DNA sequence: CTGCTCGTGTGACAAATGTTACTGTGGCTA
DNA sequence: TAGCCACAGTAACATTTGTCACACGAGCAG
């Protein structure tokens, strides 16, 4: 096995060897730097990305350039939107931005149907991806539909901590405000209250979660 | 062809005859009355519904029983959630309520994989359903994330009119308030403003769209 | 050190939305 | 007819969130 095949196998342990070989033979490896925008709203989708390393965030853009975080993509995952949109010449409904330097496999959309038909493990992966992302998006809807900003902030912090696997969050209040589509002052205010309730410790560019 | 097969063919013109025969042989027809709740949050999904007639609404429930409308299901459609969740013994994340008396085909989840593998037209239907529902949900997110209640109300009214194919909406302010997760007074207020702007005409239990 | 930028804290106020309370009106039924 | 109920209108007020203005301190560049 080549190094690349091993990398795929590690990130996607459920893929059959056949599947990995076919992917390996028909796709390319790509790297992206933190801050890169891989996919933009309105852009045509020509391929699907399998994430091997790093982290992406997927968000929805408002008309005036507001951002709204939907979910993070990590190694072993793929963008649900691209898995499906890719089948018909569709434009992207979301924006994908690199959070930590990413290494990924690019699968051309022309291969998608073939993989789907010939590889059970690919089919299961697609279905699983769709289901989990749909659930995640439903949870996002819950948050904005039913919860006030203080709860949404708590949820956001926890999710972020989970995504990076640590309890210290290195984000400015401004960045958080952007992702929750509110203003810095509101976040400052709410974080202060959380600090008073003993839920967090605040420092410059750093929030320590105590929950 | 039996009457039922004809009905399926009419509502789902893209289904191949083979596919329809297989569905016909392995599934049952069911009717539901307006007001029935077909699927509840937390319930196990044991089958998928293909809608032949009538109308369903799919919504998300909050912890305190709030409702939040996601989309309508109409003839020729199926619940995206059930198409996917059905593959693994999953519980429903949403609630489905009958708006107009429904006739539907119930497909047991055990059949799903087989249909997916053997029928191209089923595969395409599932992918199409997923994609369009995901897009619809993204639009819903846009609305609650980026727009104020007045715009959301306009969007809601237009969508409702589109769903029933007419410009007169027979809903009380209270019902609208529930689906947008706000209070009746707010809806009354906003509708009054819309009337003053000449966008609607208001009558008891009736809103006439002029846009 | 000085001056600058960035991130943060905070008060004052505006706007949107949620809540409470009360009114009126149409239609139904006893 | 009287009484009841669902629906709608609206005023007054509370709460949440957004906006503006300004101050402070850490850290960096000159």
TrEMBL record, chains A, B:
The keyword DNA-binding applies. Transmembrane segments: none annotated. The keyword Heme does not apply. The lineage of its organism: Bacteria, Pseudomonadati, Bacteroidota, Flavobacteriia, Flavobacteriales. This is Crp/Fnr family transcriptional regulator. Keywords: DNA-binding, Transcription, Transcription regulation. SUPFAM superfamilies: cAMP-binding domain-like, Winged helix' DNA-binding domain. Residues 11-117 form the Cyclic nucleotide-binding domain. InterPro entries: cNMP-bd_dom (IPR000595), cNMP-bd_dom_sf (IPR018490), HTH_CRP (IPR012318), RmlC-like_jellyroll (IPR014710), WH-like_DNA-bd_sf (IPR036388), WH_DNA-bd_sf (IPR036390). SMART domains: cNMP, HTH_CRP.
